[in-house]
Amino acid sequence: MSNAHTCQLTDSRVVDSRTSVNGRTIRRRRQCACGQRFTTYEAMEVMTPVDFQHRDRVVAALTTALVAVRQIGKRNGGNAP
User: Fold this and answer.
1) 72, 75, 78, 80: CA torsion to nearest 10
2) How far apart are CA 63 and CA 68, in angstroms?
3) What is the SS3 assignment for 75?
4) Cα–Cα distance between 66 and 34 in angstroms, integer?
5) DSSP code at position 43
6) Fewer CB within 10 Å: C terminus or N terminus of the chain?
7) Positions of the chain with pLDDT under 50
8) Using CA atoms, how far apart are residues 73 and 77, in angstroms rounded to an integer?
């Protein structure tokens, strides 16, 4: 949640929302419980694709880790995933 700059309260409501021209940012006008209005911006995160060249190594590492977790769980008497 966003804080108002003067009172630092976290209780605010959205008064107006607008999307930017490129569609990646949202501008929100908020009003705090104390009455102050302020603007927040929300930007879309751009994730880079996974490098598929190393996919086999990642799968092998995750499989090894899962086997290790299961073995530790069995040693401790618990039900491992």
Assistant:
1) 30
2) 9
3) helix
4) 51
5) E
6) C
7) 80-81
8) 6
Q: What is the reported pTM?
A: 0.47
What are the tokens at 74?
Answer: 């069995």
CA neighbours closer than 13 Å in the CB half-sphere of residue 5? 5
Question: Would you state the structure tokens that stand for residue 36, as one six-digit string?
Answer: 């102050």
Name the pairing type of β-strands 37-43 and 12-19.
Answer: unpaired
The residue among 55, 13, 56 whose CA lies nearest residue 33 is: 13
Closest CA to 44 of 26, 68, 63: 26
DSSP string covering 5-42, please?
A: TTT----EEEEEEEE-TTSSEEEEEEEETTS-EEEEEE
Q: What are 44's two structure tokens?
A: 């879309």
CA distance 40 to 59: 40
